[in-house]
């Protein structure tokens, strides 16, 4: 009986660890995608700023 409970506990621990790995992997993937989108937006913003004519007082 004791050995069986120990095995069940180890299996539960292993399953929990596998689930945590999956969640952390998903978080990592989403973080990478968000970072790439932010970089793309920053590049687009910089390109737009370069394309705008530079005139004094145009926005005032």
The fraction of residues in strands falls at: under 5%
The secondary structure category is mainly alpha
Shape: rod-shaped
Average pLDDT score:
88
Largest sheet: none
Strand tally is 0
Distance between the termini: 81 Å
- Rg over CA atoms, rounded to whole Å, is 26 Å
Fraction of residues in helices?
over 70%
The DSSP helix count reads 1
Order of helices and strands: H
Low-confidence blocks of residues: none
Report on the structure:
- The protein has 60 residues and is an all-alpha fold.
- The protein contains one helix and no strands.
For this entry, give a set of tags.
60 residues; mainly alpha; 1 helix; 0% strand; rod-shaped
Please sum up the structure shown.
The chain has 60 residues and is mainly α.
Write the layout of secondary structure elements.
Elements: H1 2-51
């Amino acid at each position: 009986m004791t050995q069986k409970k120990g095995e069940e506990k180890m299996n539960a621990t292993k399953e929990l660890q596998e689930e945590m790995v999956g969640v952390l992997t998903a978080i990592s993937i989403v973080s990478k995608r968000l970072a790439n989108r932010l970089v793309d937006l920053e590049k687009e913003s910089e390109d737009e700023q370069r394309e705008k004519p530079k005139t004094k007082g145009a926005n005032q």
